[in-house]
Write a structure and sequence with these properties.
429 residues, alpha/beta, Rossmann fold, six-stranded mixed beta sheet, six-stranded parallel beta sheet
Length: 429
């Protein structure tokens, strides 16, 4: 668990650094999150800067603890130097016992003396000139057998002293910089300070910062580098267009969960105060499986508050993940027992869009619409006159539309969901 927490905090630290670097971009510069080379690649007309982030609260900085990221940068330098690219390499690292700099002599000595077999097998053929063609062929294999690895280790043991570097390490060092990084909380404050340049101090801390965090985390997960490319203007425009607090697993990991949920509830209050709006909830399989015992009480409680005046309020729509069809049927049957019939859009064994949209073949006093995710499209929701769509949990199916408000709620329990939608005044622990 300690390792998992450390890994997560490393990602959170990287997201903070990414936001800060975006805010420091010049007008024509772009930044690639989870870059082609390192964690952050900054592209300008003149050059390219690539940044690797490391965060260790319980480690002392030694040459061995930073060697691998520097070696990876050296490998890229070896390959890029032949193409005439001007790249500046930055290792931005925090350690509990940090040092001011890494010297070229310490790094060179490490390469010449290390006994780390993984480093030898993975990197030496990219750092040293290997005159033996057969050994080079083995080193370049994508997958190496135990025999291959032993051959490489034996070769390096016998010949390392005679091997020369592929490039001048001193020249690489002139393009490399080790930066003694800030603590997590200090870096966070630096990010908020940068955001104060584009909004008021309170909004910078309570709205812009968590939303910038969500934005960077979302883009970082994209597969294509072009989809992970951002400018300062992109970030500022995104933040200016967000009127509510965005929640995802990363913001909830990085910040005070209860404080975020309280702020989120406040930003949603006005949306749930509107009686005539049609609201749809798209609920993930993961959330439903985890909260199977409480989903029926939640829906009944929701109907009791937000559909108690049929002349003024509109029946909501609940869309269940496709893996939870049995749970969905249980909900429908349970609601029927309480004289709350449901429009499922089903005619016989088939889902019929027209029946779901126009309320054909269902009781006149139906209390809500319920169906599975595979039956629903944005077009169907638009024709149902949906005003607000809430995604609960992680749902890959896109139902975004310009014709209704969309909000994804990354919550894990019905207690948190009840709190956000105004069914509970206090957050259940």
């Amino acid at each position: 668990m300690r390792q998992a927490d450390s890994t997560i905090k490393g990602y959170l630290y990287q997201f903070n650094k990414s936001i800060l670097e975006i805010m420091h971009l010049s007008e024509n510069d772009t930044l690639v999150l989870e870059g082609v080379i390192e964690d952050i690649d900054i592209l300008s007309n003149a050059s390219e800067t690539t940044i690797q982030c490391k965060y260790h609260e319980d480690k002392k900085c030694t040459i061995s603890s930073v060697a691998v990221p520097i070696i990876e940068m050296l490998c890229n330098y070896c390959e890029s130097s032949y193409m005439g690219k001007d790249i500046h390499y930055v290792l931005y690292a925090y350690f509990s016992e940090n040092i001011d700099e890494i010297t070229v002599s310490a790094f060179t000595n490490f390469l010449k003396t290390t006994q780390d077999k993984e480093i030898e097998i993975k990197y030496f053929h990219r750092v040293f000139v290997i005159p033996d063609a057969s050994i080079l062929d083995i080193a370049n294999k994508g997958k190496k057998t135990a025999v291959d690895k032993e051959a490489l280790i034996s070769y390096y043991k016998a010949n390392r002293s005679s091997l020369s570097f592929r490039v001048d390490i001193a020249k690489f060092w002139s393009c490399f910089q080790y930066i003694k990084a800030e603590r997590f909380d200090s870096l966070k404050e630096s990010v908020i300070e940068a955001l104060r340049e584009i909004t008021d101090p309170d909004s910078a801390a309570t709205l812009y910062y968590p939303n910038a965090f969500s934005y960077v985390a979302y883009l970082s997960a994209k597969k294509k580098p072009s989809d992970r490319t951002v400018t300062k203007k992109d970030l500022i425009d995104f933040l200016a267009n967000q009127k509510t607090l965005l929640l995802n697993r990363w913001t909830l990991e990085a910040m005070d969960r209860n404080a975020l949920l309280k702020a989120k509830r406040g930003s949603l209050t006005s949306f749930f105060a509107s009686n005539p709006d049609v609201r749809a909830f798209v609920i993930s399989d993961e959330f439903l499986e985890k909260n199977a015992d409480t989903i029926i009480p939640f829906i009944r409680e929701y109907l009791g508050k937000y559909y108690k005046k049929p002349k003024l309020q509109k029946p909501p729509i609940f869309v269940f993940g496709d893996k939870c069809s049995d749970l969905m049927q249980s909900v429908i049957i349970e609601l029927y027992k309480y004289q709350q019939p449901v429009n499922t859009g089903m005619v016989g064994l088939q889902f019929v869009e027209d029946s779901f949209i126009n309320d054909n073949n269902c009781p006149n006093n139906y209390a809500c619409k319920i169906t599975q995710l595979s039956n629903i499209t944005a077009s169907i929701l638009e024709q149902c006159h949906v005003n607000q769509l809430y995604g609960v949990g992680m749902v890959s199916h896109s139902l975004d539309s310009k014709n209704y408000f969309v909000e994804w709620l990354t919550v894990s329990t019905t207690g948190e969901l009840r709190y956000l939608v105004g069914l509970s005044r206090s957050l259940e622990v």
